[in-house]
Structures are given as structure tokens and as C-alpha cells.
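Job type: complex structure
Entries:
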Amino acid sequence: MINLENRISSIFKNLKLENKKAFISFTTAGFPDVDTSFEIMKSIADSGAHIHEISFPHAEAQADGPIIQLANIESIKNGINFDKVIGIAKEMRAYNQQIGLVMMGYLNNIFIYGIDKFAKEVSGIIDAVICVDLPADVVEESQLKQALKKENIALIKLITPTTSDERIKKLVENAEGFIYSVNVAGITGVKSAEIDKVNSQISRIKQYTDLPVVSGFGIKTVEDVRKFSKSNADGVVIGSAIVEKIQEISKKNTDKKNIAKFVKDFCSELIKSLNS
Amino acid sequence: MSTNEIKNSLRSGPNKNGYYGDFGGRYAPEILMPNLIQLEEAFETAINDKNFIDEFNYYLKEYVGRPNPLYYAEQLTKKIGGAKIYLKSDHLNHLGAHKINNSLFQVLLAKYMGKTKIYCETGAGAHLIATAACGARFNLPVVGYMGKDDIFLQSTNVLKAKLFGASVVECVDGTGQKGVLKDACTSVLKAWSSDPTAFYCCGSAIGPHPFPKIVQYAQSIIGKEIKQQILEKENRLPDAIVACIGGGSNLIGSIHEFLDDHDVALYGVEAEHSSALTNGSIGIMQGFKSFMLQSNDGSATLDTKSLASGINFYSCGPEHSYLKSIGRVSYTYATDDEAFDAFQLLCKTEGILPAFEPSFAIAQAIKLAKEMSEDKIIVINICGRGDKDIDTAERMLGDKLGK
């Protein structure tokens, strides 16, 4: 049986040839509402984002700051559920076959849905999963990893400023897709990343793995992204900053096409700064 | 890893990854993992360090006021007409609740680890004032996280904590409108993630491993005393032990010593509208796997409600889920009305003012005692005193209180 190369690996390989970095966007499924969130994701794909993280919201998001937490609560209130998030992922894949799709969130949704059932359901749709509260030390980690592997989906590992070298070695051992380097000790969207620390953490990780390393948390502005264009990261993740833009614009403007256009323009600008 | 493992015992605690059967574990973001591992190692070292344990025992006696009485509630027993009812008096501890046992232990552990700042969460505020007091005593600054609604309901406890030098952070859910214990739990985990060199003093037998183990260890002094005292008074073990459960620290503390004594029936009593063990399903939130009241797809907790803030919690400690799954402990619930009746009954019959939380246990114990013969013995842990609840009691009684 030929194991088809994971879409994410090809994305990074091609970017490397062009000496470019991956732009990874993150939005909350169901925010501000189910339909608009899908429009936004389509427009982000149109903007040329390489990978998009579809966040499945959780009300007790213990690693997220106020911006994403509010989006989570609002989206749950507005009727999103895990089934619908999978539905959005499917529609996104139908809309765009190039973009890498990641589903990101907390384990409980996948646990309740059923680990094997989930892996089968998203087979051929998404390319990776990030579970914020799934360290290597719990039983579901190996269960989910194996189930996803069968479907050629990567389970992404997060490494943080508090992770020791010894632990990094262990974490990257069976890692796939890319490594997510968390820039700050803390939650999303609060502290700002310091480029020197980011670089040294990524160097630390790259000692132990050849996988691409992407940098996330605390990257907020076009200026931040410009700074990161010179970092040793293979990609950057922008989450809270995009969600905050969606919050701002959706308060003033309820037309989903307009909201989507606005987000698309913001992402285009970020991408331009990253790979100028 | 557990050093006090006992073969074929229900008391041997979680396995090396923090599981009690299928429950518990350590579902924490990577940022917290090094802290949790460091804490686990320090805990195992401390409990095998005679000096540390001597210090803990010294302050349990001299500062907390242990052992507290196992009191024969003769009047209540007569009134009910069934089993002999004993009350374990954790309401007589310093600051009026069982929470101080755990706060003392963990603040000493923080000191042992050389930590310089303590975070804690709280529901009714009992854990907050206990941790604030120990922080004052051992010169460690305390930051308490408390739900907006609980701050309103338990303003006296907030005031006490501030007098002890603690600061209190108001917590709300994502809407920013309301906040209870679960919101305090999520907020404190975020604060700790952002300040990982601090010590997090977890107030109940919940959270990622090793917290359920640490809290169980510290609170087990309750059950150890019950065992010694009942043997002195009755020369035998009780037939039943009853305690209330939200997160489950006072219950696990009361019963852990008896888990292998299979003739002792054990009861946990939840509040009707936060009865995770009776009406919940298995889920994973806030770092642990347990029974919980959650939405169908696991995205959110369900709204809970209770007369007693301290047991108004959507889930319960993982060891309780395990003890339920193997049938060792019977979990039931009482209604607010039943608890409030029991609260008044203990006031009238014994001149003891229980907190609303143990009133749920009293309500269930009364039902059990009635069904048991007079030669049987039942123990209720009165895990807190009701001073914090008298304003609410006054509002509820209104004219009935008389002039």
C-alpha cells in the first residue's frame, strides 16, 4: 500500500524550496455564527493561507485567553457543536484542496464523539489535529495518535518555554506534521512574544527534530509578523489577533460577505509581511 | 511511584500516571506538565520526610486544633429514632471548616519546595480563607480566584481573606456576566500557566494528577481520627459514614481510612442540581477524567445550582468516580429543601450551626438512620460551620424566625 504523503509535509517542502514560511491562521468554528465562520474560513483560504486551524470551541478553554474564550462561549451559544464543526471541515475541504486543515481544541469533544469514529469521519478531510490538553502521558494520546495515523492525519505536539530538553526529546520522537512551539508561558492572546526567546526555543527544538517548527502565541500585529519573517520558525500561527478582528467587525457589520472580505484583507496583509 | 502503596487495597491510590481505574489522569496543557511532575516528586519526597510530617502534625494540633471531637449527637439520635448518630466536628477547626487541613499541608509543601507565591481557587470561600491564613502564618502571598456570584454570596469570607493579606480575583465565565467555582478553577489554571513558578494550592480532590492524591492525603486526617475515636468510644467501627460531596475533599478525607473495611457502608451526598455522580456522564475537563454534568458534545458544563456554594460543582474528584464505578461508595443527592430542614434540625436539637454543605449530608444521614436499628452507628462529617450562611438562612426563614 502506498502511503500518500500528508498534505502538510508537501506544504512545508514546497515552501522551503521557495524560501518562504507557512502562514497558519486560526478561527473559531461557529463564531460569530456557523454560516459566517464558514465564509470567513473560505476567504482565509482565498487569501493564500497555507494552513488553517479550525478551532472547535470549548467553554472551559484552560489554555485560552479572553478573546478566544469569548468567541468560544458566543459560538456555543449560537448553536455550534462538534458535529457541525466536522461539517464545516468537510465543506472547507470541498471548497479548497490545497490548504492544510487542522482541527484544534480540547480532548473532551473527541473523547465524547469517540476517538476511532472521529478519525474515520475526518479521514481525507483534515491533515492534523491539535489537542491542547492531551499530553503524552495520558491513555488517550496513544489511542488518538494510532487512530489518526491510520487515516494519514498527524497529531501535532506542542512544546512550551517550560518544556525541558529531556522532555522535548521524548515529545518529538514520534511527532508528525510539524512541531508547535508555544512562544510564551501563558495563555493565548495576552503576552507578546519576544523574538530572541522564540529563536532560542526553536533552535532548542531543532536540535532534536527535522520536522518543521511553527511559532504561535503572542504574535498579534503586522509588525510582529514582519519581525517573525526573520525568525528561524518555519511558520507562524495567528489566532487571537484574527478572532479579535472578527469580533470587532462583526459588531459593526453583520453581512457575512463583508466580514469575510475584511478578514481576508487582514490575512493577505499578514502573509505579505511574512514572506515579503 | 506511590510510596505508600498497599497490595490489594482500595487505598493504594492512583497508578503512576494518576489514574484511579479509568478516572483521573493528567489532562493538562504542556505548559503545566513540568510543574505537575515537579509537584508530584516534591509531594512524594515530603511525605517520606519525617521532619515535614512532624511539622504538619504539629500545626494540625496547635494551629488547626485537631483532633476535634467525635461527638455523640444524643438529642438528634433520639429525635430521629434509629441508629446512634455521631458527628465528626470539622466545623470546630480553626476557621470553621475542613479546608484548613489541606491548605496547611499544601502551604507547608510550597514552603518545602521554596515557592514564593500561592494561587488558589474557591467556591464558598472556605478554601480561600484557610489558604490565606496559612499564607499569612508562613509568609507566602496568596492570590485567590473566586466566582463573581460566590463573592456576592460569601462576602464575609472575602473580607476575612483580605484581612489575612490575600488578594481576591473575581472570575467570570466567557460571557463576563456570571462566575462560580468552575470558573474559578479554569481561571486559576490559566493564572498558573502564566506564572508557572508559583504554587497552586488546589482546594478539592479534583484537577490533574497529583492534586487529587495530595488533597486526599491531607484530608485523610479526618478519617484517621474518626477511626481512633470510634474505637475508643464504641470499641468497634461504625456501620456507616456520610459526608457531602462537591469536588469531594471532605468525603474522601472522611472515608479513605475505611475503604478496605468493607463492613462500613460509605455515602456521598451531592446537591440535587449539581449531582455529577448521580446524573452525569464521563468526561474530561479542567485536567481530569470523571463524571460530570456536560452538554451532549462535551463542549461545556451544564449550569449547576445549590444552596451550598461549596458543593455547587459540575463534576467530582476522580477517585469518587472510581469508587462509584466499583460500587464501594453509594452516591446520592439531597434537595435544597431537605438540606435546609436538616440545617435547622441540627440547630434546634444540638445547638450546632452547620454550614449548608454538610446539611446535605445530614439530610441523607437522617433518612439512613431512621432505617437502621438502635444498635447501629452512623457518623456524619460536619465539614463546616454555618456562620457564613446565616444571612441566607435569615432571608429564607423570614417571618418564621420570630421576633
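Summary: The longest strand of chain B covers residues 265-271. Chain B touches chain A through 39 residues (CB under 8 Å).
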